[in-house]
Amino acid sequence: MAVTIHDVARLAGVNSSTVSRVINGKATISPDTKERVYAAMRALDYHPNSVARSLASGLSGAIGVVVDARDAEAFSNVFFSRSLFAIEKVAQSRGYQVMIANGAQDHGATVEHLMKERKVDGLILPPTTIRPSLMEAIGEFPYVVLGTPDTLRSDTCWVDNNNEQGAEIAVRHLQEMGYGAIAYLGGYQKRGFTKRRVRGYQKTVGKGQETVLSTDGTVENAYAVALEALGGEARPDAFVCNDNLAAFGLLKACRALHLAVPQDVGIVAFDNYPLAEYTDPPLTIVDIDTSMLGEQTAQLLFRRIDNRTGNQQIMLSTALVRRASSERKDQTGC
Q1: CA–CA separation, 330 vs 334, rounded Å?
Q2: 154-191 burial by CB neighbour count: b if 16+ within 10 A, else e?
């Protein structure tokens, strides 16, 4: 005999209507009651009828994450995966599924399709989608931007890491370690987060002291660019790297030129890539907590789905993890 909602209610010690409200997410239920209901559902292997649930609640039981699959670097990197995993965990805790849709560059057609056909109850969007025409089409439909939009920044709902602050922290640390000629290495300068990191670097290093060295995002190109910079007459004695790949290329260039890190060249890199602490020497990094980024984005989206908040802008702080690549000893040897 099939397990029913009444069986779940009996095992959880609640009314059937309470089980229904937990499943549909249509009322405020205490965490303890929710857990008892979910535990009973697991014990009985009860699975709500998604079609009936959708008809009863007017909700699809899914959220959409819009991506640009053509951007292979952003789409496949470990940090996107961490954010997506955190979004998935929050969604699962609400009984929701996550639908990934490719459509950041189709002028909003994918977003409008998902909304108008009620395939999802809310959307997580990349900053590249944000333009006045799309915001007008979205209207009151729940959405959150994963990142800071370049346009309509104060009129949209978004969550981002404070990349500008991260660059400021990196430069100040290198200055405190006694480095004077600090360059910025790596990144596509047209990317929003890279622009903000460069802006933080430029503001902190001082006017007229900036050296921004762009790369194509690969280790090989970072190596070539760093090799040229370090071989010049006015070579930098420290670098803020846009990511770990730029730092790996820089380390390779230092070895080729027999420059010691951190004695001759100091390095701070963005993003705590899994191998950052295992390089020689281990990399000092600006930690961008992408798991927290995904979690906060999903939680904000569900608050919007529940009609509990309007547009919000959330900026998450970064933190410096100090390792050997920037810890130059002073002249006294201490």
Answers
A1: 6
A2: eebbbbbbbbbbbbbbbbebbbebebeebbbbbbbeeb
Give the neighbor-by-neighbor strand order of the sheet with 158-161: 97-102, 62-67, 123-125, 143-146, 158-161, 313-316
CA distance 189 to 204: 18
The whole-angstrom separation of Cα 17 and Cα 13 is 12
- How many other C-beta atoms are found inside a 10 Å radius of the C-beta of residue 288? 24
Could you report the per-residue pLDDT of 227-250, keeping only the tens digit for each?
999 998 889 999 999 999 999 999
Q: Which of 68-77, 116-125, 213-222, 298-307 has the lowest mean pLDDT?
A: 68-77
Structure-derived torsion over alpha carbons of residues 291, 295, 297, 302, reported in degrees to the nearest 10: 160
> Which of 157, 152, 73, 76 has its CA nearest to residue 122?
157
In 18-55, which positions are buried (b, 16+ CB within 10 angstroms) versus exposed (e)?
A: bbbbbbbbeeebeeebbebbbebbeeeebebeeeebbe
Contacts of 330 (CB under 8 A, 6+ apart): 178
Q: What is the pLDDT of residue 260?
A: 97
Distance CA 334, CA 326 (A): 15
Pair 313, 197: CB distance under 8 Å: no
Is residue 185 within 8 Å of 250, Cβ to Cβ? yes
Residue 276 CA to residue 287 CA, distance in Å, equals: 11
Classify residue 133 as exposed, middle or buried by CB count within 10 Å of its CB (0-12, 13-18, 19+).
Answer: exposed
- The residue assigned the tokens 């071989």 is 231
Q: What percent of the chain has pLDDT over 70?
A: 88
